[in-house]
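In this section we walk through a basic example: taking a raw amino acid sequence and producing a predicted 3D structure, encoded as discrete structure tokens. The instruction is simple. Fold the sequence below.
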Amino acid sequence: MSETDAFTEAEYAALLDLAVAKYRFIDVADSVAHDVPVVVWRHDADHSIHRALALAEIEHARGVRAVYHLMTASRYYNVLEPEVTAIIRRLGALGHHLGLHFDMDVFGEKGSVGAAEVAARVAFERNVIETAAGVSLTSMSFHNHLVNAARLGEEPRIAGLANGSAPSYFRRFRYVSDSNGMWRRDRLRDILEGEPVERLIVLTHPEWWTPEPMTPFERMRRCVAGRADANLELYVYQLSRDGRLAPIADRSGLPRDLVARVRARNAKP
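The resulting token sequence is shown next.
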């Protein structure tokens, strides 16, 4: 199987089926002292909340409760947007565990940061998501872990959230990740087809898992372009909703196909 074929929704479903047969799925906040092999099946939603929902539906169909770590500092989605807030609520309604994916870049790219300052910011971001979406967060992890390794909080809990990046937690697991849209060390399929390990962390990033095969850059372009197209359509929709589209459509230079899509959307019952 080529690397591009290895990151499709079909392959994702097949990997889940392998994991379900051998592992108990647990939250980061759960005890890891189990008498059967366990897996923390975690998603860091860095770039696409819509792809996160697509994977969440696949998991739910198999009775899987995964872990979704969400960002408030993402440049690619905004947890306060009504559509995004609705998706977060849906993730919770599907039974998945929710957490915070914390980006140290909120303090700048360099420089030391005190533990109290980190904890205060984590508490703030936790409150933003919980208040906006009406959900509860149970855990957290740090974004760009390697870049920020020297200044990450290593406490087992930060602002009431189980810290999945804490060395005391992380070193108890075998770890496999799809960072940058490729398996960094081991292939997940190889691990899941082998003898189960006692404790496993599977870290995925939803933007890499698409319906059809693509290169990682094409997947990233799809994610960014999809958001841009949706924002342009929203702009035209708002013009239409306010009654301003017809008088200014031609004068504004709006593409006719975009105007037609919005009008067709408005015409639906």
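Looking at the output, two observations stand out. The mean pLDDT is 91. The first helix runs from residue 9 to 22. In the next section we compare this with other chains.
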